[in-house]
Amino acid sequence: MEKRRFERFTVQGEVEGNIVYTAEICLLDISLGGIRFLTTKRLNPEGSCRINLRHREKEVTLRGKIIWSIFKGTKKIDSEFLQSRLRYIVPGILKKKKIDIDFLPVYEVAVEFSPFSKETKASLSELIDQIKDATAV
Description:
The chain is of the alpha+beta class. It has helices spanning about 80-90, 95, 120-135; strands at about 25-30, 35-40, 50-55, 60-75, 105-115. It has a domain at about 25-115. A five-stranded antiparallel β-sheet has the order 1-2-5-4-3.
């Protein structure tokens, strides 16, 4: 017999939910309408997402729809860095064995922003201007 602190109930019918996780992105381009970036997380087209963008002191949070996501290849990772990250993700696993993962998948993703307020549009415009100024040659 299972011992649980709380009783579990079998779900009848449909109950929806989602899991929110953080992934680093490498920004490729951005406009007031959307963004294109690289990430090591696979994102499903037609799915929704929330993107937090930061540049200098400016931060903007946007919601959007994933238009497409394409596997672009892999990137080599530092195994010591990975081992240190796995200690937080899967506690205890590294005591038993060393995990040999040297590469992560890389996906190119395009997101169309959902409609947003005038204030968010102004904040995004400022952030885009800051990025343009920082990358101007």
